[in-house]
Amino acid sequence: MSGRRAIRGVALLTALILLALMAAIAAALSVSTGFMLHRQQAVSAQDQAWQLLGATEALSSWAIKDELTDSGLRVHQGQRWHQPLGPIEPVTGAILEAQLEDLQGRFNLNALLSPDGSVDPTALQFFERLLQAVGIEPEWAPRLVDWIDADDRPLPGGGEEAFHASASPAARPGNQWLVSPSEILSLPGFGMERYQRLAPHITALPLDAGLNACTATAAVLDSLSGDQQWLNQPERLQQAQAEQCFPGEEAVRNSVRDPNTYLALKRSLKLGETSRYFGLKTWVQIGSAEFALYSVLRLDGDGAARAQVRVLTRESMQ
Length: 318
Prior knowledge:
The protein has two domains: 2-104 and 277-316, Pantoate--beta-alanine Ligase, Chain: A,domain 2 (2-Layer Sandwich), CATH 3.30.1300; 108-269, Orthogonal Bundle (Ribonucleotide Reductase Protein R1, domain 1). A hairpin with a 7-residue loop joins strand 6 (289-300) and strand 7. It is of the alpha+beta class and 318 residues long. The protein has helices at 2-68, 121-133, 140-148, 161-165, 191-198, 218-225, 234-241, 248-255, 259-269; strands spanning 85-88, 94-102, 107-108, 202-203, 277-286, 289-300, 308-316. Helix 2 (121-133) crosses helix 3 and helix 2 (121-133) packs across helix 6 (218-225). It has nine helices and seven strands, in the order αβββααααβααααβββ. The longest helix has 67 residues, at 2-68.
């Protein structure tokens, strides 16, 4: 009797073990299937987001070409290209927003060097004033010049390869033109806090990109004149620029006290009222997934028939 009970006990235990194994396998299959479905949904959302991002670039390119080729490339924020897009729902379940900005309303960090690779003293002094205008130590200006120039001779207050090799962590100067303004973070000790203060006022573009007096930021305008005017009333500047070219090249010239200083600034920074380089920020939300892209666009050609807009760079945003 006890033997039969033992056999039944073993059989029951075996059945329970088999049942537990089947339950574990079923749970594993369910989890695996859930992961696969989630992954497929994520891939599908990513593909859809990139299609929307590409469509937004195409639409923005058309807006730039359609309006600016008829205006002689004279650019200001009162024009249609600067109007934000969205939020809209271009397809079911997807929310899109986009904004174009004139990158030539910022200081081009590559202007710190002349086309022959030598330091531009006027641009260097301007950058020092810009740093001070946003509350950053001016000695970062010669350090950035030494980071991008090709020689190994440090400027006063700057630092070349030996300086960066002794930093922690050690680094080597790029010794080339900047592709993105965020490369200034490569300077040891510069830090994100400084960059966030400076970022709205700087860009990194080819040397043919001048400074647009119609769209320049408050800090850039104050650094041109040497006075703290627009930083004290940014709302007024923003309102005026949203309507027309403001303050414009003539007003900037009148704000610089010394005519020779103005001519030097105009030559070094290529000051004017036209633009060819634009930044496009695009945000897409599909379900719980969010995507963001920053594109740099360039308008080529002077006439409507020959003009075209090219995408120079793309960078995902956090």
